[in-house]
Every structure is written in C-alpha cells, then in structure tokens.
Amino acid sequence: MPESQAERDLGGFDLAVVGAGAAGLWAALCAAEAGGRVCLISRKPLAESASFHAQGGLAAALDPDDSPALHAADTIAAGRGLCRTAAVEILTAEGPGIVADLIERGMTFDRGPDGSLSLALEGGHSRRRIIHAGGSQTGREITGSLARMVAEEPRIDVIDETSAIALWSDGERCHGVITDAGRIRSRATLLATGGAAALWRRTSNPWGAIGAGPVLASAAGAELADLEFCQFHPTCLSAPGTDVDGALITEAIRGEGALLLDRSGERFTDELAPRDDVTAAILARIQEQGGGEVRLDVSMVPPGRFPSVFALLEHAGFDPRREPVPISPGAHYMMGGVAVDLDGMTSLPGLYAAGECACTGLHGANRLASNSLTECFVFGRRAARAGLEE
Ligand code: SIN
Q1: How far apart are CA 318 and CA 297, in angstroms?
Q2: CA distances (Å), 336 to each of 139, 222, 354, in order?
Q3: What φ, ψ does residue 291 adopt, rounded to 5°?
Q4: Is 56 a pocket residue for ligand 1 (Cβ < 6 Å)?
Q5: Closest Cα to atom 5 of ligand 1
Q6: What share of the chain is helix, strand, coil (3-state, %, to 5)?
Q7: pLDDT at 97 over 80
Q8: Which of 129, 183, 187, 275 is the catalytic position?
Q9: Stretch 250-274: mean pLDDT, rounded?
Q10: Mean pLDDT confidence for 223-236
Q11: How far apart are CA 122 and CA 112, in angstroms?
C-alpha cells in the first residue's frame, strides 16, 4: 500500500466502530440513534461476520416460569464461579428488554403454532430460554436485519472492505483508527472485531476470527484479560480433508433430543451439561475406547427444525436420518479479550470494546450457550452510549 493511502484523512466522527458483526452493527445503530455521527469499518461487506455464521440464538429469561435470577445462576455455574457477577446481572436483567426491542424493530424470531416465541434448550440452561430465527440461521437473520437498518441510517458512514491496521494512540488516549484506506479521527473508538478461535487448527469459526481486536488494543497500550479461556464446542463435524471439517452442529439439536454415542453405540454423557463438561466427556471417551470416533445421532430430530444443519450434513455426504454423524470438539469462543468495564471502556481512554473481542468477565471460564448474541446487544448498546459521552 502506498504510504499516502494510509495517511489520507477519511474524516472525523463521534464514534468509530471497527467490525460489523452483531455487536458492531448494533453499537453503530445505537450511537447514531442517540445523535452521534458514526463511522463503521468492516473488513468484509456488511453482514459477513462471525455473527453471520452463528447457529445459536439469544438467551433471555422470557418464559413465565423463568427469571433473570435463574438465568444468572446458570451463567455463573457454567462460568465455573469465575464470572463477574455485576456483568451477569446486567445481561440477565436487560436480555428480555433487548428481545422486545428487536421484535419492535421488525426482527422475526421462530414461533410455535400458538404464535408464542419458541424457546429452545441448550447445555447448562435449567429452562428453555433460547430464541432462534430461521431455525439454526439466527446469525444470518439478525446480522442481515441489522445491516439493512445500518444502511438506511444517514448518520452512519460505512467504510467496508477496509481493514483497521492500528489504533491512533499516543499511549495516553485513543484518537481514532488507521486503516488501509486512510485515517479516521474519532472522539471514541469501539472495537467489535469478534473472536480468536480460528487461531486453533480445529475450529468452528470463520478464518478471520484471529483476535484482530485484542492485537490492535494491546499494541495501543490497552490491557487484555482472561486469554487462557477458550471454549471448545463439543459437536463439530469430523470430516477430515473436506471443506466442512469442524463445521458446527448446533447444541440446540441436542436440546431437541440428539444423542452422543461412542464406538459401541452407547450413550456416555449428559448431552445437555455445560459445554466444557460435554467436551471433556467426549475426549475421555475417545481415549478410553482407544481412539476412533464419537457420533451424534440426530435421527429423532425433524430436519425441518434445523434445515441448514441437515443440508450441511448431506452436503458432507452423510445421511443423518439413517446413521449417526462423526463429531469431535473444536475451538469455538474466546471468553478473554480486551479488558473492559461494564460500559465497554478499556484501560486506554477513548477506546471501547464489545462482543467477543471484549472481556467484561461475564462468561467467567466457560460461556453459557447463546449468551454471546445477547451480550452483543446488551453490552454493545452500553458501550455505544458511553463512547458518545466522551
Ligand atoms: C450452538 O448453536 O451450539 C452455538 C451457539 C453458541 O455458541 O452459543
């Protein structure tokens, strides 16, 4: 890149958001709606982020038989007692309001025959509290809707197919972003770059999830936290040598009855225990049986409930209605990231972070399934609002 290109002045904004997954799109919208002039920088065209691929849904205490306190207790148990309780309380209290807000904005979530929201079960949840859109296509539906709203918002300038190469920091404060297309001045900068699980060879993540946000933040002088905590998803497709090796088979399918079977066809664990327990049980069983495979039997699940999963398995050459499919764990989600407070503020003034690249301490050592999309909305909005007050 010619030097002059990175030095081009791309203008000044109240908030520069780096990353266009659920957290980035939503934070940009919230800031614009609050009157801010926002710039959204995205490496890819809008809506092709890790959130786009998310099969899981949004966890929120929506059932009359559920409560934020029960959701909080499940979150803390899954997090192995290492969650920041204040962050858990905020997520679980604000989750139901976020769902109502999204519905009011026209997002459609899956509903049962009586018209009420379908609430799914995933590992570690003591109640049905996960909402989905389009079965296992929640990420695609949500990021698609958000991208359309962002495109219609005149206060947001989208700079896509552009990479942030550094934060504009003097070591005391962040003043904006240096991209490969030029410099952006901003009163506040918000990182929403997603995760880092694609640093592992076997991963459920798209290739771009390599920790860009924490790298930028650390180079600019901000603190990172909890980087030792990476979550392994138990059921990634095992199809070595194919383009779908490591593809995620959503946990919600186990919530509908799918079973884990060892080489002798025997069940060996509680399929709906928290993810770290299920992953550990699979690895132990593979060792005990002297290698070989563990399989997931999805034959009892109606394919129409998870059309994209069944399509993926068929594309990979399996007939999941006739025989269990081979799976093994893959790196899936980083609990650690850029250390932030409850308003997304990092240790570097002027710099904020939200979504998977941030570490509020919400997830402790192990994220409860489907808390992450909820986190993008709850903490993305808080960070956007705090950033605007800079
Ligand atoms: C899944 O659908 O199993 C993944 C969802 C999540 O990571 O929360």
Answers
A1: 12
A2: 21, 14, 12
A3: 95, -155
A4: yes
A5: 56
A6: 35, 25, 45
A7: yes
A8: 275
A9: 95
A10: 97
A11: 18
For the segment 305-324, what is each residue's pLDDT rounded down to a tens digit? 888 899 999 999 999 999 99
3-state secondary structure of 275: helix
Nearest to 345 by CA among 387, 381, 311: 387
Identify any residues that bridge with 185 across adjacent strands, giving them in sequence order. 12, 176
Q: Is the CB of 252 under 6 A from ligand 1?
A: yes
The residue-averaged pLDDT of 326-335 equals: 96
Q: Write out the two tokens for 329.
A: 């764990």
- pTM confidence score: 0.94
Question: Other CB atoms closer than 10 Å to residue 240's CB: what's the count?
Answer: 9
Q: What sections of 209-274 are H helices per DSSP?
A: 212-220, 252-255
127 catalytic? Reply is no
Residue 105 in contact with residue 149, Cβ under 8 Å?
Answer: yes
Give dist(CA 189, CA 13) in Å, integer.
Answer: 9
Q: Helix 85-104 and helix 371-388: axis angle, to 10°? A: 90
> Which tokens belong to 184?
């952006």
C-alpha span between 87 and 136 (Å, rounded): 27
Ligand 1 and 281: CB distance under 6 A: no
Of 141, 251, 276, 363, the residue with max ligand 1 atoms within 8 A of its CB, to mutate for a pocket test, comes to 251
Per-residue CA distances from 58 to 139, 290, 297 (Å): 10, 38, 25
Q: Which residues contact 54 (CB under 8 A, 6 or more apart)?
A: 22, 138, 139, 142, 372, 373
Q: How far is CA 332 from CA 203, 224, 292, 366, in A?
A: 6, 19, 22, 11
Average pLDDT over residues 84-106: 97
Cβ(22)–Cβ(140) below 8 Å: no
Q: Is the shortest distance between the CB of 370 and ligand 1 below 6 Å?
A: yes
- Ligand 1 pocket check for 372: Cβ under 6 Å: yes
How many angstroms is it from 196 CA to the middle of ligand 1? Answer: 16
Contact status, residue 267 vs residue 240, Cβ threshold 8 Å: no
By CB atoms closer than 10 A (0-12, 13-18, 19+), residue 212 is buried
Cα(50) to ligand 1 centroid in Å equals 12
Question: 157 Cβ partners below 8 Å, 6+ apart?
Answer: 11, 13, 38, 39, 40
Residue 289 has pLDDT above 80, yes or no: yes
